[in-house]
Amino acid sequence: GDTDPLDMSINLLVIASENNWHNLLNDLTLADGRHVVTEQTRWKHLHVEANAEGLLRVSLRGDTDPLYPGQQHDRILDCDYLFYRNFPSELHGIDFKVVWL
Questions:
Q1: pTM value > 0.70
Q2: Which element (helix H / strand E) includes 62?
């Protein structure tokens, strides 16, 4: 049978160290009725895996300086969409700001 769009959601991953995008974007409802579930992290807390089915699975380490409740815990997310606000910094111990500036 058909799935009711109101029962569906999309997972949005925000990679940004500034601003609380989670509070701004979480629980929005799209025009088709799907809800947006938002997780936010910094580059240094991100690990990405892909599988043969094309699923993007993201492991997020807990943040010692969380922007919102729950961000201090480790999380696993099957990511549908990605929004990043800045260029990579603190990725694998390298600060790319020096490279770009």
A1: yes
A2: none
